[in-house]
Amino acid sequence: MASSSSSGITFKLHPLVIVNISDHYTRLKAQTLHSGESSSCAPPSNGGTAGSAPPAPPRVFGCVIGVQRGRTVEIFNSFELLFDSKTHTLDRAFLEKKQELYKKVFPTFYILGWYSTGSDVEEADMLIHRSLMDINENPIYVLLNPAIIHSQKDLPISIYETELHVIDGNPQLIFVKSSYNIETVEAERISVDHVAHLKPSDGGSAATQLAAHLTGIHSAIKMLNSRVRVLHQYLVAMQRGEIPLDNSLLRQVLSLLRRLPAIESEKFQDEFLMEFNDTLLMTYLAMFTNCTGTMNDVVEKFNIAYDRHSRRGGRTAFI
Amino acid sequence: MAAAMETVESLVAHIQALTKPEDVAQLHSLLKQSQSDEALRSQGPHLAPLLADLDPAKHSLGYLYLLDTYLYSSISREQVAAFLPSIARFLNTCSAYHIRFASDKFISVCRCFKDQVMRQQTPIQGIIPLRSAVQKLQNSSEQLTTLHSDFLLLCLLAKCYKPSLCILENDIFEAENPKDLFLFYYYGGMIYIGLKRFSKALECLHNVFTSPMANLNAIAIEAYKKYILVSLIHSGQVPPFPKYTSATAQRNLKNYAQAYLDLTTAYATGKHSEIEACIQQHIEKFQSDNNLGLVKQVLSSLSKRNIQRLTQTYLTLSLQDISNSVQLNGSKESELHVLHMIQDGEIHATINQKDGMVIFHEDPEEYKTCQMVNQMDLSIQRLMSLSKKLTAIDEHISCDPAYLTKIGRERTRYEFDDFDSVPPKYL
């Protein structure tokens, strides 16, 4: 049903849309799971034997809005819609209300299409698609695949357009997949970065932030170190003749080496050493505090144990 | 007589034969046996030529026993004096492994050596041999032995402070005898005062009077008096007693140091005249304690402290103004003072001689050198090892029955039904 599109339209997707869809889906899934657990007595089992089948993950629906300039369609934002599963239609009044509200805030944005979740396009989707055709002649359908496949490296997002194809003598609308690019604005990049790092909820304190920052740097350096080591071993083996010479690889290594040292000026040395010393001083201070705390405990205990005239009825030391 | 001589000679033969490390234990038991045997002791005065036969490096243990018997037998002072070089040679070359078998004998030999050297009024002779003796006797650089205080005493008497630094710089974690500890830190404090390293002197003297003690002792009192003076010179005030000072010290020390506490209050006013009046008042007390030199240094430190206070208020100041506010006589003297302070690193300033102005600077250390990195790395390593030791001590004390008994008693008062932290057998 889906083949590659030939309309020549380039799609630009903003990460906000992806985050919105995934958030909508996760919320709904959490809600149904929660209500499903409280109502059913048997826990949901995977791959159903006798017993209740796991509740099917709900499909979410919503609208995507953005700007179309010539042959470029840029999808900026999205919002959720109510889906009436009996009539298989979207709630029209709600959609129009929402559209009006969004028009006030973003006057340049149009409704470009709609989104949903699932692994592949379904028959029922065509109905929804046709119903949106009166708002936009050529709506687009953004599909998010919520199943987590670890081997798959690409984003599980596909954008479909409709084309009029002649099949069996009847002109029919079918979905065709289109390629898209991800487009980010600075602000979006920062927020996505933030979400990706998943800092702890009370990570406002400087200590946890510093620890997280240093941990990140540490793991990055560790990875770099292991990779350099692998290269080194490879080169040594090549030198000894255990592995046949590979000139292209050697050229790549040479170009890498030519890029070092990156900066060698005195100003860099000063800045670098100052930052290094700052971190060392912080470690020193932390150790000092730690040591002083231990010392305090030792002194308290010693006073209690051995001093004949220690304070009576005062606070006792914590064992 | 001849039989006794024979046993001694056979003993010497044994000593020369049993030189391998495995035989040392055997040799030791043999020597102990002969010690109780009267024969050896009666031959005491005649042992000198036999000692010449033995090599102190290889036959250290035997040499030690014979030497000890010789020195404590009835020989005259001149003989001991004549023997001093051999003793020195022995102390320098003996093997540490051997002498640890008979450490008390070693200590008594060293004691005799020290007494003799002091009697001869040439303490400087004894410094190097005693230092090697100390290094050989201690099991690790963190252990304090009886010899430490003797060694420091010799250094003090000879006014030769440099050799003692390598011993003083080690942190002490084990001590057997409290008196050794007190004496060691007291002498150590005095050596640092002589070297004008007042912060280290404060540390040492501090250790003396904050050590746990059941009864007050004279060393702690003297140390406390010096501590007051040195802390006035170094930081301008005397800090209160820390938490870990024993209750005896806290209650009684101040009674013996009244003159010094008066000096502290006079110093706090910051006026030369007050301090001089106070010194005049208590001058015999200071003199009898041999502290008059330190007291004079306290007086001169007052002007230094006033100049340092000026750096916090002014960016530039004329020399005349400095001499006015610090009560010195004239700009020449204040220039001299400021110059000395800049050289000692106590303040950061430049003197402009043309118009007689002094410009005060900030600390130019910017912490961006590799040496600073190394320095901090060393400090962090030291702290880490100290922290490990402290945690070990903490755990040790938590399991101490004395501590548990006291804790258990206080806990029962609060009647925690469900939380019994101390097993009843300790109550």
From TrEMBL, chain A:
GO biological processes: protein deneddylation
Cited InterPro entries: EIF3F/CSN6-like_C, JAMM/MPN+_dom, MPN, MPN_CSN6
GO cellular component, as recorded: COP9 signalosome; cytoplasm
A Pfam family hit: JAB
Compartment(s): Cytoplasm; Nucleus
Keywords, in A-Z order: Cytoplasm, Nucleus, Signalosome
Gene3D superfamilies referenced in this protein's UniProt entry, alphabetically: Cytidine Deaminase, domain 2 (3.40.140.10)
PANTHER family associated with the record: COP9 SIGNALOSOME COMPLEX SUBUNIT 6, EUKARYOTIC TRANSLATION INITIATION FACTOR 3 SUBUNIT F-RELATED
Protein name: COP9 signalosome complex subunit 6
Organism: Rhynchospora pubera
From TrEMBL, chain B:
Domain of life: Eukaryota
GO cellular component terms, semicolon-separated: COP9 signalosome; cytoplasm
Cellular localisation: Cytoplasm; Nucleus
Keywords per UniProt: Cytoplasm, Nucleus, Signalosome
GO aspect biological process, one term: ubiquitin-dependent protein catabolic process
Signal sequence bounds: none
One Pfam family cited in the UniProt record for this chain: COP9_hel_rpt
PCI domain ranges (all copies): 197-365
InterPro entries in alphabetical order: COP9_N, CSN3, PCI_dom, WH_DNA-bd_sf
Residues passing through the membrane, by range: none
SUPFAM superfamilies found in the cross-reference section: Winged helix' DNA-binding domain
Predominant location: cytoplasm
Keyword Nucleus on entry: yes
Family: Belongs to the CSN3 family.
PANTHER family tied to this protein: 26S PROTEASOME NON-ATPASE REGULATORY SUBUNIT 3/COP9 SIGNALOSOME COMPLEX SUBUNIT 3, COP9 SIGNALOSOME COMPLEX SUBUNIT 3
Protein name according to UniProt: COP9 signalosome complex subunit 3
